[in-house]
Amino acid sequence: MAFNNGLERRKFERKWENLRKEYTDAGMSESVIKEMYEFDLRVFNRTRADRERGQSLIGVINDINEEENLSKSSVLQNLSETLTVTDKYSIQPKRFRWIDDIENKQLYNLIVELPERDKEFLTFLVTGYNRAEIAEIRGVKIQSINKKISKFKKLFSTVVFASVVNITNN
After folding, report:
1. Are 60 and 50 in contact (CB under 8 A)?
2. Contact (Cβ atoms closer than 8 angstroms) between residue 92 and residue 126
3. ∠ at Cα 160 (91, 148), nearest 5°?
4. Which of 26, 107, 108, 130 is most open to solvent, judged by the fewest CB atoms within 10 Å of its CB?
């Protein structure tokens, strides 16, 4: 929507006529009122300039499904670095990012040190695969999956137990 400078300026001046009367009635000095008017006028002019020269993202968002419009958009080209978010701090490969969310330091360190094959196994469990699906994916029997789960339960229970002992001793 275009900025109608004449109309908006008349609205601004009418508003300031009323404000000037209020401020004078309240006992403010003319120099202070003038400073406030000049400040508001600078804000008004800055807003006008932004609207006249700026580009709206609304058109870009409406055309987001069209690849060619997206690549032609100067707004997105200028702001692409600002609008792009990357996780610089994760040390895990993308499929293991859930590990970075573990709050228990001992458990986190234990899982990080596991071989990649075990991390993949745990990733299947965390993402909701059942034992039969994991067995099928890995090409093994369900009994070996059950043994692996028991092994991890035992391993993780020692870490959890140790952290509970540390909490109670402190």
Report:
1. no
2. no
3. 75
4. 26
Dist CA 108 CA 90 (whole Å): 13
**CA–CA dist 144, 126 (Å, integer):** 18
Q: pTM of this prediction?
A: 0.42
CB atoms within 10 A of CB 124: 16
9: its two tokens: 């300026």
Q: Which two tokens stand for residue 125?
A: 């469990």
The DSSP output letter for 99 is G
CB 102 within 8 A of CB 157: no
Contact status, residue 165 vs residue 155, Cβ threshold 8 Å: no
Candidates 154, 101, 151, 89; CA nearest to 126 is 101
Q: For the segment 66-114, what is each residue's pLDDT rounded down to a tens digit?
A: 555 555 556 666 666 666 665 545 555 667 778 888 888 888 888 888 8
